[in-house]
Design brief:
The chain is mostly helical. Helices cover about 65% and strands about 0% of the residues. The protein contains 4 helices and no strands. The longest helix is centred in the C-terminal third of the chain and has 22 residues. The model has no long low-confidence stretch (mean pLDDT about 90). It holds the Pfam family DUF6457. This is DUF6457 domain-containing protein. InterPro entries: DUF6457.
Length: about 100
């Protein structure tokens, strides 16, 4: 069986800082909890492979906000994706 690497939750802040520095992104603009919540909800309501795709799209949309990019806007975009995932799940359920 393939052994998967798992990053302990307490290391996420350090990884965020390192990855953001590598990409030239302000780590303060990123809410780890928001991104992980979107990934979880999309993986559960749509499909696991849709989670990284959706979080990438979230990042693209957030980046397009430019100077208007703040944590509240990230939360708003995330809510749109979570709502879309829930609607997707509802539409896929038999008898609906």
């Amino acid at each position: 069986m393939n052994e998967q690497k798992r990053l302990p939750p307490e290391a996420l802040d350090a990884w965020l800082a390192a990855a953001a520095a590598e990409l030239g992104v302000d780590p303060g603009a990123v809410s780890i909890g928001t991104v992980l919540d979107v990934a979880r909800d999309v993986a559960h309501d749509v499909a696991r492979p849709a989670a990284p795709l959706s979080t990438f799209l979230l990042g693209v949309a957030f980046g397009r906000l430019g100077d208007d990019a703040d944590p509240e806007r990230l939360d708003g975009l995330a809510a749109l994706l979570v709502d879309r995932a829930d609607a997707w799940k509802q539409a896929q359920e038999p008898g609906e």
